[in-house]
Design brief:
It is built from 11 helices and 12 strands. Helices cover 35% and strands 16% of the residues. The strands form 2 sheets. It has a 7-stranded parallel beta sheet, with helices on both faces. Strands 2-1-3-4-5 form a 5-stranded parallel beta sheet, with helices on both faces. It is of the alpha/beta class. The chain has 2 domains: 113 residues, NAD(P)-binding Rossmann-like Domain (Rossmann fold, 3-Layer(aba) Sandwich); 189 residues, Rossmann fold.
Length: 318
Amino acid sequence: MIKKILILDKNHPFIIYKLKQKGFICDENYNDSTDKIDISLYDGVILRSRLKIDKKFIEKATNLKFIARIGSGTENIDKDSVIKKGITLISSPEGNKDAVAEHAIGMLLCMMNHIIHSHQQIITKGKWNRETNRGIEIMGKTIGIIGYGNTGKAFAKKLSGFNAKILCYDIRPKVGDIYGKQVNMSTIFKKSDVVSLHVPYTKETKGMINYNFIIKFCKPFYFINTSRGGCVITTHLAEALKNGKIHGACLDVLEYENCSYNNIFPKHKLPKSFLYLIHSNKVILTPHIAGWTKESKYKMDKKIVEKIIFLNKKLNLT
């Protein structure tokens, strides 16, 4: 039975209200590090990305029934230790999938139609350049989606009205649907005009977008990353932008972000590849906000509450 829950990150007020309404005791700790928290007092933990839940922390969790990560990524949690301990790991990718999908499309439209670049030309240089800012339509293009889970599927569904051809690749079989045709990576390499990344950050996906990956594409393409910055080797991406192998990059995430995603390398000198990105008109950058809408904040918390209540019912039946 789940009785006492520790909340480690500030979330939508709904989450505490609803949990207390269902009879759970909720403690809040938004400041302490894991070594200062007595986790043995709790049956469950709810967090975002402020802290890393490592093996040492989990070993002290003598009563823990679940760890709930609000959002889609769980890379700040030692999943092997969680599984070994028999703790249920909960996340809520369903809650921000639509926000991520809309953001990805917004970035792509801005890139292909020179919206940000032409706006800056007007307000900073007083230039009204029509021909040089002639855009490209999504209609008729082939869009390759790598990773066809919650966000990949939402992206494909929202693209369905653009009359583009949607291809998807995933390590899991038979995940394609009416919006995205599942194919192998060879087909993605051969046909894609746009590539959008929607994979979790794992040992397998770390640095997967690198030189050897990029050169396999048969034609230049637009690249979107709303997953995790560590999946892309930025120096290789910058080189591909320079040599025209990639037409443009829409990046909501960067490999330079810290583990909480609240900043990028505040104590280090800016890498040359990042300096290239921020000065290139082939790049659009946003600060890890693709899934960061007012609606998604509520929906992610709502989904976490639903899963905790379901888990408690399940535990009470065993």
